[in-house]
Amino acid sequence: KKIAVFASGNGSNFQAILDQVKLGAVDAEIGFVFCDKLKAGVIERAKSANIPVFSFVQKDFENKAQFEEEILTHLRDHQIDFVILAGYMRLIGDTLLQAYENKIVNIHPSLLPAFPGKDAIGQAYRAGVKVTGVTVHYVDAGMDTGPIIAQQAVEVAYGDTEDMIAEKIHKVEHLLYPKVIQELVSK
Ligand code: GRF
């Protein structure tokens, strides 16, 4: 199977997936990375792994549909089976949702439906929860609302700073996401 990874930032989840692909633990090919920013850590990570990168910004298109048509052209050219969102900071629109129905997944750093949207780790920290975690879910038109595929809890210890929680969360993400992707592609 072929996957495309969509990311907007650092790309540590992309890196974790790539590492497991290289090890053969994820039985998929990463066809390309799409980044909706012209500068982002993920672009350098993909380039140094010789994975094609497309980066363009939505505001250079007339509307979201046209922006997504351009993405769709690349998905079709590369015969992509699954779209993996990894820190992609944009809602997916009808164009992609219809073309890739039940084939788009996302990872979110909280136990959804708690703390959807931006800064989920900060939201959890400020709420003072003692358990938060990571969710992998199918993507629908909402913000972090699609059917849940997998979740893993992360405990917040007394005295944990926001950075300490973030570190624990990211460690879990980097293990959980490749595992879920492997299940997805091997179905
Ligand atoms: C992760 O915490 C992910 O759950 C969220 O965005 C962050 C991306 O981090 N959706 P990275 O770019 O993969 O390092």
Descriptive notes:
- The protein has 187 residues and is of the alpha/beta class.
- It has a single domain, classed as Formyl transferase, N-terminal domain (Rossmann fold, 3-Layer(aba) Sandwich), CATH 3.40.50.
- It is 39% helix and 22% strand.
- The protein is built from six helices and seven strands.
- A seven-stranded mixed beta sheet has the order 3-2-1-4-5-6-7.
- Helix 1 packs across helix 6.
- The longest helix is centred in the C-terminal third of the chain and has 24 residues, at 162-185.
- It binds 5-O-phosphono-beta-D-ribofuranosylamine (GRF).
Identify the notable features of this structure and list them briefly.
alpha/beta, 39% helix, Rossmann fold, 7-stranded mixed beta sheet, single chain, binds 5-O-phosphono-beta-D-ribofuranosylamine, 187 residues, 6 helices, 7 strands
Quick structural gist:
By secondary structure, the protein is α/β, with parallel strands linked by helices.
> Which fold name corresponds to the CATH topology?
Rossmann fold
Ligands in the structure? 5-O-phosphono-beta-D-ribofuranosylamine
Ranges with pLDDT <50 over ≥5 residues? none
- The CATH homologous superfamily is called Formyl transferase, N-terminal domain
Total strand segments: 7
CATH class: Alpha Beta
Strand order of the largest sheet: 3-2-1-4-5-6-7
Number of helices: 6
CATH architecture: 3-Layer(aba) Sandwich
Structural class: alpha/beta
Q: How would you state the average pLDDT, rounded?
A: 98
The portion of residues forming beta strands comes to 15-25%
Helix proportion: 25-40%
Order of helices and strands: EHEHEHEHEHEEH
Overall geometric form: globular
Tally of discrete structural domains: 1
Major sheet size, sense and barrel closure:
7 strands, mixed
The Rg value, from CA coordinates, equals 16 Å
